[in-house]
Amino acid sequence: MENQNEKIKERFDALFSEWEKVIDDPKIRISSRPRDYINNEPYKAIVNLGEVALPLIIEKLKQGVFFMNQAVLDITGVKIDHIIGKEKRFPSEQEKSRLLIDWWKTRNK
Length: 109
Fold this sequence. Notes:
Layout: H1 2-23, H2 26-29, H3 34-38, H4 41-48, H5 54-62, H6 69-76, H7 80-84, H8 93-107
């Protein structure tokens, strides 16, 4: 199992590094639309890793990489409205990260 976890982490880290290069494009960097940060092959490959990547993605959220919020939702199939509750507000991506991290903690107790 240890070897499998290491392989997953290595694959995730490689894909994450590719993703960082993609989003470093000036056209993407100036965008305020989260979709611009996830409409690329490295992001899709991260999502395709599935549930095994979730702990690694959550760690990135804790580090402030809020453009990975959607990856949690895409992998789990959970809707953000389910996580934020019935509040009639529009949380920032940073707030969504915090809520997703809290949700993850309660899900994995």
